[in-house]
Amino acid sequence: MSYRYLIFNKPYGVLTQFTDADGNRPTLKNYINVPSVYAVGRLDQDSEGLLLLTNNGIVQHKLTDPKFHHTKTYWAQVEGIPTSEAISQLEQGVNIQTYKTRPAQVKVLQNQDIPPRHPPIRFRAHIPTTWLEITLTEGKNRQVRKMTAAVGFPTLRLMRVQIGNLKLNQLAIGQWRDLTEQEVKAIIATYKN
Fold it and tell me: What is the rounded CA–CA span in Å between residue 117 and residue 136?
């Protein structure tokens, strides 16, 4: 069998699947015409950014199983200016419902060239926003949003920019491409560890 590995820059509002039971929301099918590939993990409808797709079930399993601790990096635009205490809480792990998140790497981003979202996030002149880079080794449902809300700075916009060493780089929103041979080798090396 010939394996395919694709990277996709998922726009806001697109479902991370090829069909929609409601039939009225955009899906991966609106962007990708490659048979038999499936998303590795998920990005919720309200999130944007890097999505890996493949028809290699072993890679899908190894990259999504939390026991392998693969890193995923997100840029989160949060409401307000997080305090050093809030950043420290995110780094140490946050209690969310019935579990505590694993420690994360967190830094404040400065002067990033981030394309606008369509539709744009709500804008309130009297409330500033801050972009954070958050790197996780787990991926629970809506985890970044829950983490930033738990420390008092709700996420307004969320983009995944990296999985392991695989980065979006200059891939435009709504575009996809096959991984390079070097990127495929790096992915395979990652899941063999």
Answer: 23
Q: Which of 54-63, 68-77, 124-133, 152-161 has the lowest mean pLDDT?
A: 54-63
Comparing C-alpha atoms, which of 26, 20, 8, 48 is closest to residue 144?
Answer: 48
**How far apart are the C-alpha atoms of 12 and 119, rounded to whole Å?**
8
* Amino acid at site 142: R
Q: CA-to-CA distance for 150 and 154, rounded, in angstroms?
A: 8
Instruction: Write down all domains in the chain, each with its CATH number in brackets.
Output: 5-66+167-192 (3.30.70.580), 71-163 (3.30.70.1560)
Active-site residue list = 44
CA distances from 60 to 38, 51, 56, 155 (A): 8, 12, 6, 27
The angle subtended at Cα 38 by Cα 35 and Cα 44, nearest 5°, is 130
Q: What is the pLDDT of residues 62-114, one digit of tens each?
A: 777 777 778 899 999 999 999 999 999 999 999 998 889 999 999 999 977 88
**Distance of alpha carbon 26 from alpha carbon 20, whole angstroms:** 8
